[in-house]
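Worked example 3 (structure in, sequence out).
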């Protein structure tokens, strides 16, 4: 019979000295010095040392402690005792214990400070990898980040939405999509909720957001790409211009980072990460100005080119040195490389009203003011040589009163990677999908 747990390890405080408690946890280590044995027990809230003395528990159980396998799960019944040595200021004097589940030898290393197990092997046994305090800390921060996004946006009057993830073609492009046999019809996994969130601007909801997975069939073997990735998508009605969207994103970044420093300080300590609360407004540079700045620093791009990895990193470093800012907005992009729904500049129609947000030299968000005027939108569709009939379900929503609007997509995986200084984006997601991996 397993006794009922009375608390988690992290709940045990020095003021509980003398209290009898029951905790559950994994055996982190066992040490035997003869008449006294020590068990370090671990649960999701932390670790604690358990002291076993021969005269305080059953003799057979005392002897058996030395044979307990690491990572087996125990229940522990004992008395809380203040300690001047333990980091938490407390330890447990053992009265009784029992084996809940025995662990076999582990296929990967999880205890050493310097883990040599290859990442692919760690992912194969991700549930064991997660027993490492630093990996748990990482995913606590990721979970809190998503919670803070929701908290911030809902405080701003946003409504969370859920859009289809199996879609017909005719959204943005036919490239790099995963095909799905939908009852004999050709369909695709969604790359973005873009057209749906724009349609909702016509409904009068005004402010919407979605956190969801999307898919892109790119055979990219890089440290910044995934085939399945998690995005925050935001759309806002009645904007005065792109600046409203930039301000919203700036405020969200400040809110998330400030709250993480306050609410996940222990997780950040475990990861040895120091977060810098950004100063607003973030530096802003048009892509045309970026071409010049990069050229002056030895990176030549052709006029109209996208920023490649090297260019983003170099630009991020330049603005960090010049403005002490980890964030920089890159503004205005060529119409020829922009989606049909983008609003073009009135005085320079070959350029669109949009932005990318770089964080520590990596694009983490991208957004635009959208073209809300029906006739101009039709003109854009025709210039892109798209079929109006395949987009009719979307275009119709612009005929019945569509407010000025804009929004952005924000890469959660990329943000976590940059914020926590991870080498590979796959570290930022529990079960990553790339061109070579579709399990576990």
């Amino acid at each position: 019979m397993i006794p009922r747990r009375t608390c988690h390890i992290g709940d045990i405080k020095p003021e509980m000295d003398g209290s009898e408690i029951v905790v559950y946890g994994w055996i982190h280590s066992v040490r035997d010095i003869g008449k006294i044995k020590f068990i370090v027990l671990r649960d999701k809230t932390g670790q604690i040392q358990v002291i076993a003395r021969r005269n305080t528990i059953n003799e057979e159980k005392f002897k058996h402690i030395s044979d307990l396998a690491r990572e087996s799960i125990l229940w522990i019944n004992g008395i809380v005792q203040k300690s001047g040595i333990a980091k938490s200021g407390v330890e447990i004097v053992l009265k009784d214990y029992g084996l809940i589940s025995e662990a076999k030898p582990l296929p990967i290393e999880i205890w050493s400070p310097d883990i040599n197990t290859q990442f692919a092997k760690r992912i194969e046994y991700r549930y064991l990898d997660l027993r490492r305090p630093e990996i748990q800390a990482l995913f606590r921060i990721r979970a809190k980040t998503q919670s803070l996004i929701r908290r911030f946006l809902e405080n701003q009057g946003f409504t969370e939405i859920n859009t289809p993830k199996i879609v017909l073609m005719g959204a943005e492009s036919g490239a790099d999509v995963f095909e799905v046999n939908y009852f004999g019809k050709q369909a695709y996994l969604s790359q973005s909720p873009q057209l749906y969130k724009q349609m909702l601007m016509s409904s009068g909801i005004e402010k919407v957001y979605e956190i969801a997975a999307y898919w892109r069939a790119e055979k990219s073997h890089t440290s910044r790409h995934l085939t399945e990735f998690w995005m925050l998508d935001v759309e806002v009605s009645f904007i005065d211009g792109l600046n409203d969207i930039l301000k919203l994103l700036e405020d969200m970044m400040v809110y998330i980072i400030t709250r993480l420093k306050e609410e996940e300080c222990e997780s950040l300590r475990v990861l040895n990460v120091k977060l810098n609360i950004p100063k607003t407004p973030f530096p802003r540079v048009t892509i045309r100005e970026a071409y010049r700045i990069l050229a002056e620093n030895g990176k030549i791009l052709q006029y109209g080119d996208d920023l490649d990895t090297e260019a983003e990193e170099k630009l991020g470093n330049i603005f960090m040195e010049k403005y002490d800012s980890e964030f920089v907005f890159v503004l205005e992009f060529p119409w020829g490389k922009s989606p049909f729904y983008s609003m073009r500049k009135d005085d320079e129609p070959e350029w669109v009203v949009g932005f990318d947000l770089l964080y520590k030299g990596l694009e983490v968000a991208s957004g635009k003011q959208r073209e809300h005027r029906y006739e101009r939108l039709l003109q854009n569709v025709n210039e892109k040589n798209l079929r109006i009939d395949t987009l009719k379900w979307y275009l119709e929503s612009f005929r019945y009163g569509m407010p000025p609007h804009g929004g952005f997509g924000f890469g959660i995986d990329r943000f976590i990677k940059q914020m926590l200084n991870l080498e590979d984006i796959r570290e930022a997601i529990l079960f990553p999908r790339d061109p070579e991996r579709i399990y576990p």
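Notes: The longest strand covers residues 20-32. The domain at 9-101 is CATH 2.40.50.140 (OB fold (Dihydrolipoamide Acetyltransferase, E2P)).
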